[in-house]
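Board notes (copied after class):
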Amino acid sequence: MNLIQSPLVATGKTLKSALALSLVTVAVVSANLGHVSAANVSFNSARDCDTNAILKCGAMDAGELQQKYNAANAATHEVYNWYGISATDIANMGSTAVAGSVQKNGNVVVNGKVVAKDAISAGWHSMPGSTRVVSNGATFYNSAPNISFVANQIDAFVVLNSDSQFKFAVLASCSNPVKATNVVPAPTPTPVPTPTPTPTPTPTPVPETPPVVQPVATTPVELPKTGPASVVAGAGIFTGVTALGGAAHAFLVRRKRATDM
């Protein structure tokens, strides 16, 4: 937006006082930007109605911004596309945008906190220090706030992600889209505790039961009977054998003698 060349709509207020006034209908922003929610953000800012405004005379609330965006031509939509802002993003701004401002030094501020730096914004006109962009048939110019802003800051619809990090912004007075470098760090993830392993219980040894040895059944063998009678009989047999042997020996001796004679 080129405020140097932009006449103000007659309001009876000076540029300084007009830009200083803003009204947030509903906006809840935590002090540390850990959580941001918004609905129906609206401003009472000076309108920029010259031909450099991407949407002539800008928009003071999300509903007006959506209405003008939907009625705009393809070249206008391409400017927003180049800035990473889709039709869905515009349609959701009633619930996603929060009140903020873009400062002449390039910072984007929400609730007194800097959420982004090195901002640039688009416009239809070239000015000293701006950069020409041609994208899908649309020609526009990017410039830093210290080139295009007269005031120290301009009210803006600011959209952050779920971690309160900057996504994009739209200047209220002219609806020119804004890019900037997010400076809000991602939240530190909550460490997941390491589960303590459950010890495996040591099994209780089961005592071994010794095998039962079954006795082997045996048939008793009757031993030969012994006693005095058996001894006598044995002695008789032995005596008989001895006598027979002696008779044989005597026979052999007699025969030998006869042969010698």
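Comment from the instructor: The beta strands are 27-29, 36-38, 97-103, 108-110, 113-123, 131-135, 138-143, 153-160, 166-171, 177-182. The chain has two domains: 15-182, 231-261.
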